[in-house]
Amino acid sequence: MAVKKLTWRSIVPYCYKSERPSSRASKKVVAKQTSFQRLSLSDLSNPSSTFSEDLSISLAGSNLHIFTLGELKVITQSFSSSNFLGEGGFGPVHKGFIDDKLRPGLTAQPVAVKLLDLDGSQGHREWLTEVIFLGQLRHPHLVKLIGYCCEDEHRLLVYEYMPRGSLENQLFRRYSVSLPWSTRMKIALGAAKGLAFLHEAEKPVIYRDFKASNILLDSDYTPKLSDFGLAKDGPEGDDTHVSTRVMGTQGYAAPEYIMTGHLTAMSDVYSFGVVLLELLTGRRSVDKNRPHREQNLVEWAKPMLKEPRKLSRIMDPRLEGQYSEIGARKAAALAYQCISHRPKQRPKISDVVKILEPLKDFDDIPIAFVYTVPTESDSIKDVKEGDAQKELKKKNNHHQQNHQGHKHHQLKSPKSPHYYSENMVHQNHRNNGLKSPLHQRGRGI
Ligand SMILES: Nc1ncnc2c1ncn2[C@@H]1O[C@H](COP(=O)(O)OP(=O)(O)OP(=O)(O)O)[C@@H](O)[C@H]1O
Ligand SMILES: [Mg+2]
Where is it located (predicted)? Predict the structure, then answer.
């Protein structure tokens, strides 16, 4: 396939202030070649370098807008605290609004602007990974990267705004309305479809950071995966895995990956299983505020996942029993397979999608207690099941409406530190490194 070589500067021309292009030049990165081949980080000769000018690369298909820092200040009202959405390992995220005057051809829309807290070359590399992966991958279950800013030492990313924030906030925030069962299943299915798209791409991608805070929710709770800073191209040819530094989040990373650094698509499936458990139980993958033996969700829940009688003990109490028992059993059995210690015993993500597909439609949700004022006819017969079903439907609709209608509040949550890095790879399984999370994303190469 003939792929035209482009230079690094032709992708991120604004990084070099002295050579900022004229306004007519590249306000938007447009694919220049007709044949499409997804660019990988490895196609860059020196991706860690912030200032290297001659990184020869082949790029295709990106359609990203390049913003100036000034423009992003305008749309976020100078990153004002009233627009603050949250903060992760990379830095703060602010809401912004692009109006139709900002740029011809760019639709007026709300956006989320992530300001990278650059610390050495690692931050730049993760920024670049995000631009390269998300700039080229488009899917209904991946958050859309609209553009970026690369001006002097500043690195920012501009995403479509996701009105319901992250699954983490929706599931664990103390005063949020509980997510109904069908919404939980919808989220699990959509997120699995996002992963399946990555794993089954012509050039497969391992996501590596699947977790509740990276699943963002649209207004109708459609889930979209975000944060590709740790994504990796999958193994090619006869290779069974790629070797990497262990990076990810405590409680979600697969055990074999932590022990060996060997990364496969099955590492993502393990993390998916952990998120599915979070959806079932309403508990965080790691929760230091619980009694010691309940702190690690996988260890605590695993023995109960295959026993239907015990399952109800671990289901999220906030569901108040309003879930399909058959659906819960199937989802629990699926989670059990996904968190298997042996990667080969885990299902492929495409099989996960097939198993989850029907679960959102199970309606064997138990009939809630409904107090019925006795009437004459009631005194001779019980409430007909049909009535009770109607009552339940009404209750569920009400529940759903309440839920859909609740106002989204973003937590200005101080993030608990949860990243661990390469230094912990081999020694950590001996001293149980999972107990000592890093305070930030792994830095340094
Ligand atoms: N596109 C978006 N739309 C709306 N809110 C967003 C968007 N992207 C991020 N956020 C919010 O910003 C907050 C920080 O997100 P960020 O991805 O930086 O960190 P995180 O996922 O919480 O942690 P980590 O660094 O481990 O990924 C999250 O609480 C999320 O809800
Ligand atoms: Mg994130």
Answer: Cell membrane
Tell me, what's the pLDDT at 121? Answer: 55
- Which whole number is the average pLDDT over 383-404? 44
Distance from the alpha carbon of residue 380 to the mean position of ligand 1, in angstroms: 58
276 in Cβ contact with 331 (< 8 Å): yes
CA 294 to chain centre: 24
Written as one string, the DSSP assignment of 273-302 is HHHHHHHHH---SB-TTS-GGGSBHHHHHH
Q: Which two tokens stand for residue 329?
A: 């059993």
DSSP state, 232?
A: E
Question: Residue 156 — φ and ψ, nearest 5°?
Answer: -130, 155
| C-alpha 181: how far from chain center | 19
Are 185 and 363 in contact by the 8 Å Cβ rule? The answer is: no
Please tell me the distance between residue 255's alpha carbon and the centre of ligand 2 in angstroms: 21
Structure tokens at 332: 């629990």
pTM score = 0.76
Residue of 161, 169, 226 to mutate, ligand 1, most atoms within 8 A of C-beta: 226
Surrounding residues of ion ligand 2, Cβ less than 5 A:
88, 214, 227
Copy the structure tokens of residue 39: 């660019």
In this predicted model, which residue has the larger pLDDT, 356 or 434? 356
CATH, range 167-361: 1.10.510.10
162 residue type, one letter: M
Beta partners for 147?
Answer: 65, 158
Question: How far apart are the C-alpha atoms of 56 and 4, rounded to whole Å?
Answer: 10
> What's the DSSP call for residue 96?
E
Tell me which DSSP letter residue 161 carries: -
Give the Cα separation of 238 and 302 in Å (integer): 33
Q: Which CATH architecture has domain 12-17+53-160?
A: 2-Layer Sandwich (3.30)
| Domain assignments of the chain as residue spans, ordered by start | 12-17+53-160, 167-361, 406-445
- Best mean pLDDT range from 97-111, 166-180, 277-291, 363-377: 277-291
The span from the CA of 419 to the CA of 440, in Å, is 6
Determine which one of 43, 99, 209, 218 is catalytic: 209
Indicate the residue type of 22. S
The DSSP element (H or E) to which 145 belongs, if any, is strand 145-151
- From CA 316, how far away is CA 297, in angstroms rounded? 12
Task: Classify the C-alpha dihedral 286-117-42-420 as positive or negative.
Answer: negative
Could you give the CA distance from residue 407 to residue 153 in angstroms, rounded to a whole number?
37
> Of 255, 266, 300, which Cα lies nearest the Cα of 280?
300
Position 316, amino acid: D
Q: Label the pairing between strands 109-115 and 92-98.
A: antiparallel
Looking at residue 20, its pLDDT comes to 43
